[in-house]
Design goal:
The complex is a heterodimer of chains A (317) and B (245). Chain A is mostly helical and 317 residues long. Chain A has a single domain, classed as ABC transporter involved in vitamin B12 uptake, BtuC, CATH 1.10.3470. Chain A has helices at 2-10, 13-32, 41-66, 74-91, 94-118, 123-141, 152-160, 168-186, 188-198, 200-205, 210-236, 247-257, 269-288, 293-312; strands spanning 147-148, 162-163, 166-167, 238-239. The longest helix of chain A has 27 residues, at 210-236. Chain B is of the alpha/beta class. The model of chain B has no long low-confidence stretch (mean pLDDT 87). Chain B has a domain at 7-91 and 163-242: Rossmann fold (3-Layer(aba) Sandwich), CATH 3.40.50. Chain B has helices at residues 45-52, 75-80, 98-102, 118-131, 148-162, 178-193, 205-211, 234-242; strands at residues 7-16, 19-29, 34-38, 60-65, 68-70, 83-86, 166-170, 197-201, 214-219, 222-228. The longest helix of chain B is centred in the C-terminal third of the chain and has 16 residues, at 178-193. The chains are: A mainly alpha (317), B alpha/beta (245). The A-B interface holds A 182, 186-188, 191-192, 194-195, 198-199, 201-208, 261, 265-266 and B 55, 75-76, 79, 85, 87, 89-96, 100, 104-107, 109, 114-116.
């Protein structure tokens, strides 16, 4: 009995809840939606494809939350980055378009970061403001018009194309997760991000440049959002101000459910991937079950609430 | 003592706006010597420690390390010169493992790769806590799961590991029980054996008399005096701290 207790004591529920939740929801849909094509390879691949941009935003957010900051602006960055890329591509070429998309993401992320790190404004308020600001910029940038993206190199690279039989969005998604995971777990930067979020003063007196870490995580989140914007533009072959609009809740939920603490100092990139896939699966399953859009929103909200409650349950000891 | 002092503070003064926190403070500290700083709250003890460790810069006066005048602009410069601080609140990252805390800000990397060398950090950390007799389950244990005494042990082990010359201890046993305090005091005594110079702030006069070679008293930023521990008693020190005879 003691032995069993010991094993359970070492079992960090919060770290695994996402995997258990993923399996349970998967099984539930697999059984109830068996006749609606949930289990078809096509549908499952679709889930991965649709979640690719959210997964990439989630990776950036893992770093931000781990440093005990928050980014609410990434959804707006997605739209501005995608529109900038599309507009530049119309005039010039694909490479300048990519540079524009990523550059816009980096610039907005740096802007957030500098305000947070050097003016010591709370990141919640800074990114709340820039979320609104850049949502406005995205609307005025093209007068609410949608910009087509016709460069087939671009749409292949970021959207519908495939390499070695694997869709490019899957490459992007898993590639970003692997790179993100290694930076997070195995580099000095990752360790400094965790130390900053865990105890900023301890990090400071240990010689870690805390303000630089804060700028870096918000800039990274901006770049991730920029990349997500490119993926949206590639897959939809168009850019519009609405891109990324509804991702805020999904991505934050994916990261938290995945096992990253809102209070900093602890997180996981792999968990965020699984959390993101879980959100995508939920979306997909609810649509297949024939729920109306408003019912979907309600069910999704409740499930996220439960998932977040479970995953945060044991962190207050 | 005839050896050259490791640390010399001469006529140090620190002013924050119109408030004088420390006035005309002078002290020599020799290798292998423990000097205790005592005084009431707000006497300027922590300010003094922060000036030596580079967190604050003195408004006036000079700090010399092994005879050389130094002026640190931040804590990492002081650390590079072999000065370590154990802070009152320990400055540990609670959710990280012991070994990452011992290497906080100085993580080891694999040869030629930008990747953390966890294995070597764990090994070194394990050796260090064993040498210092800090009893923890493992170098991979998370700080959050350790007791107050174990945490303090880790903080001191970290300082010991990196301090080549001087350790500044700011209330190292304030939050500890009797048994844990005894253990930490044993660690501090062991540091003295290693010929490290130690400056300790403590509110416990019993502790000060157990550990120190000399006692330096501060009152409201003024240096009241320095006494050799063996040649004074509690009554005199209390009178110096309070200013009441």
């Amino acid at each position: 009995m003691e032995q069993v207790k010991k094993i359970f004591a070492r079992f960090d529920l919060q770290q695994y809840v996402v995997y258990v939740g993923f399996l349970l929801i998967f099984l539930y849909f697999a059984v109830t939606l068996h006749d609606d094509g949930f289990l078809t390879q096509r549908n499952l691949t679709n889930i991965v494809l649709q979640t690719a941009p959210a997964t990439i935003m989630a990776i950036g957010l893992v770093f931000v939350l781990s440093a005990r900051e928050i980014d609410l602006s990434f959804g707006s960055i997605v739209a501005v980055a995608a529109l900038s890329a599309a507009v530049v591509m119309q005039e010039y070429n694909m490479f300048l378009g990519i540079a524009a998309g990523l550059g816009v993401g980096l610039a907005i992320g740096l802007f957030n970061g500098v305000l947070v790190a050097y003016l010591r404004l709370p990141s919640f308020l800074v990114t709340l403001a820039t979320m609104g600001l850049f949502a406005g910029v995205a609307r005025t940038l093209t007068n609410l018009r949608s910009i087509p993206v016709i460069d087939s190199g671009f749409t292949g690279f970021f959207g519908a194309g495939s390499f070695l039989g694997v869709p490019s969005l899957v490459w992007w998604s898993f590639g970003a997760v692997i790179v993100g995971h290694y930076i997070y777990r195995e580099t000095r930067f990752g360790a400094h991000v965790l130390a900053t979020g865990d105890n900023a003063r301890a990090a400071q007196v240990s010689g870690i440049k805390v303000p630089r870490i804060r700028v870096a995580v918000l800039a990274l989140s901006g770049v991730c959002a920029g990349l997500a914007g490119l993926l949206y533009a590639g897959r939809l072959q168009a850019a519009k101000y609405t891109l990324g609009e509804t991702d805020l809740m999904t991505v934050i939920a994916a990261v938290i459910v995945g096992g990253t603490l809102l209070s900093g100092g602890k997180g996981t990139v792999i968990g965020a991937l699984v959390g993101s896939l879980l959100m995508g699966m939920l979306n997909n399953g609810l649509i297949l079950q024939g729920l109306s859009v408003s019912d979907q929103m309600i069910v999704r909200g409740i499930i996220i609430l439960v998932a977040v409650a479970v995953s945060l349950r044991d962190t207050n000891h | 003592m005839e050896t050259q002092p490791l640390l010399e503070l001469s006529h140090i003064r620190k002013q924050f706006g119109g408030v004088v926190a420390v006035e005309d403070f002078s002290l020599d500290l020799h290798p292998g010597e423990i000097v205790a700083l005592v005084g009431d709250n707000g006497a300027g003890k922590s300010t003094l420690i922060k000036m030596i460790s580079g967190v604050y810069q003195p408004t006036d006066g000079a700090i010399r390390l092994s005879g050389e005048t130094v002026s640190f602009t931040d804590a990492s410069e002081a650390r590079a010169r072999g000065i370590e601080v154990v802070y009152q609140d320990l400055a540990l990252a609670d959710q990280q493992p012991v070994y990452m805390n011992l290497f906080l800000g100085r993580e080891k990397l694999m040869k030629g790769l930008p990747l953390l060398d966890r294995r070597s950090m764990v090994k070194e950390a394990q050796q260090l806590v064993e040498d210092l007799d800090v009893r923890i389950p493992s170098a991979k244990a998370t700080i959050r799961d350790l007791s107050g005494g174990q945490r303090q042990g880790i903080a001191i082990a970290r300082a010991t590991h990196w301090a080549k010359q001087l350790i500044l201890l700011d209330e190292p046993t304030a939050a500890l029980g009797v048994a844990e305090t005894a253990k930490v005091e044993k660690q501090i005594a062991a540091l003295k054996e290693r010929n490290v110079a130690i400056l300790i702030i403590s509110h416990s006069l019993d502790q000060v008399f157990r550990l120190s070679d000399r006692i330096c008293v501060l009152r409201r930023g003024q240096q009241i005096g320095i006494r050799e521990t063996a040649k004074t008693d509690k009554n005199e020190i209390v009178a110096m701290i309070t200013g009441v005879n």
